[in-house]
Amino acid sequence: MKSINFRHVLPNQEFEFAEEITGDEVFRIKVKLNKEDDETADPASYVHHEWMESTPDHYKLKIRNITGSSVYVAVEEDAPNGHKA
Fold it and tell me: How far apart are CA 69 and CA 85, in angstroms?
Protein backbone atom coordinates (compact mmCIF):
# COMPACT_ATOMS: atom_id res chain seq x y z
CA MET A 1 0.00 0.00 0.00
CA LYS A 2 1.42 3.39 -0.92
CA SER A 3 1.67 5.95 1.85
CA ILE A 4 -0.42 9.07 1.72
CA ASN A 5 0.79 12.52 2.68
CA PHE A 6 -1.43 14.67 4.84
CA ARG A 7 -1.42 18.38 4.02
CA HIS A 8 -1.80 21.00 6.77
CA VAL A 9 -4.82 23.19 5.97
CA LEU A 10 -5.58 26.39 7.91
CA PRO A 11 -9.13 27.45 8.89
CA ASN A 12 -11.18 28.41 5.81
CA GLN A 13 -8.18 27.73 3.55
CA GLU A 14 -8.94 26.21 0.14
CA PHE A 15 -6.56 24.23 -2.05
CA GLU A 16 -6.74 22.38 -5.32
CA PHE A 17 -5.74 18.75 -5.48
CA ALA A 18 -2.81 18.79 -7.92
CA GLU A 19 -3.66 15.77 -10.04
CA GLU A 20 -6.26 15.74 -12.79
CA ILE A 21 -8.86 13.09 -12.17
CA THR A 22 -10.81 11.23 -14.83
CA GLY A 23 -14.48 10.46 -14.41
CA ASP A 24 -13.91 6.78 -13.61
CA GLU A 25 -11.36 7.27 -10.80
CA VAL A 26 -12.46 6.89 -7.19
CA PHE A 27 -10.90 8.92 -4.38
CA ARG A 28 -11.35 9.05 -0.62
CA ILE A 29 -10.77 12.23 1.40
CA LYS A 30 -9.16 11.68 4.80
CA VAL A 31 -8.95 14.21 7.65
CA LYS A 32 -6.95 14.30 10.88
CA LEU A 33 -7.31 16.96 13.57
CA ASN A 34 -3.64 16.63 14.57
CA LYS A 35 -0.75 15.12 12.70
CA GLU A 36 -0.46 12.26 15.22
CA ASP A 37 -4.22 11.55 15.49
CA ASP A 38 -6.19 8.84 13.76
CA GLU A 39 -8.38 9.82 10.83
CA THR A 40 -11.78 11.27 11.64
CA ALA A 41 -14.86 9.13 11.03
CA ASP A 42 -16.67 11.88 9.11
CA PRO A 43 -14.39 14.02 6.89
CA ALA A 44 -17.39 15.97 5.56
CA SER A 45 -17.74 17.58 9.00
CA TYR A 46 -14.34 19.26 8.51
CA VAL A 47 -13.86 19.89 4.79
CA HIS A 48 -15.99 20.76 1.79
CA HIS A 49 -15.00 19.45 -1.62
CA GLU A 50 -16.03 20.49 -5.11
CA TRP A 51 -15.34 18.89 -8.48
CA MET A 52 -14.30 21.33 -11.18
CA GLU A 53 -14.33 20.12 -14.80
CA SER A 54 -11.08 21.15 -16.50
CA THR A 55 -11.66 19.38 -19.83
CA PRO A 56 -14.33 16.89 -20.88
CA ASP A 57 -14.21 13.94 -18.45
CA HIS A 58 -11.20 15.40 -16.56
CA TYR A 59 -11.71 17.07 -13.21
CA LYS A 60 -9.82 18.90 -10.48
CA LEU A 61 -10.77 18.59 -6.85
CA LYS A 62 -11.00 21.73 -4.68
CA ILE A 63 -11.01 21.16 -0.93
CA ARG A 64 -11.77 23.79 1.74
CA ASN A 65 -11.38 23.56 5.51
CA ILE A 66 -14.80 24.58 6.87
CA THR A 67 -13.76 24.65 10.53
CA GLY A 68 -12.24 27.29 12.77
CA SER A 69 -9.21 25.04 13.43
CA SER A 70 -6.35 23.68 11.38
CA VAL A 71 -6.76 20.16 10.02
CA TYR A 72 -4.64 17.70 8.03
CA VAL A 73 -6.12 16.48 4.74
CA ALA A 74 -5.13 13.69 2.37
CA VAL A 75 -6.68 12.34 -0.81
CA GLU A 76 -6.26 8.61 -1.40
CA GLU A 77 -6.99 6.83 -4.67
CA ASP A 78 -9.35 3.89 -4.34
CA ALA A 79 -9.98 1.16 -6.88
CA PRO A 80 -13.52 1.38 -8.34
CA ASN A 81 -14.48 -1.99 -6.84
CA GLY A 82 -13.65 -0.78 -3.34
CA HIS A 83 -10.24 -2.48 -3.05
CA LYS A 84 -7.29 -0.21 -2.40
CA ALA A 85 -5.11 0.51 -5.41
Answer: 31
Rounded distance between C-alpha atoms, residue 48 and residue 53, angstroms: 17
User: In whole angstroms, what is the distance from residue 61 CA to residue 50 CA?
Assistant: 6
Residues 21-24: contacts with CB under 8 Å, at least 24 apart: 21/51, 21/58, 21/59, 21/60, 21/61, 22/57, 22/58, 22/59, 23/57, 23/58, 23/59, 24/80
Q: Record the pTM.
A: 0.78
- pLDDT number for residue 85: 45
Which H/E stretch holds residue 55?
Answer: strand 47-55
What is the number of residues in the chain? 85
Residue 81: which pLDDT band, with cuts at 50, 70 and 90?
Answer: low
Q: How many CB atoms within 10 Å of residue 28?
A: 13
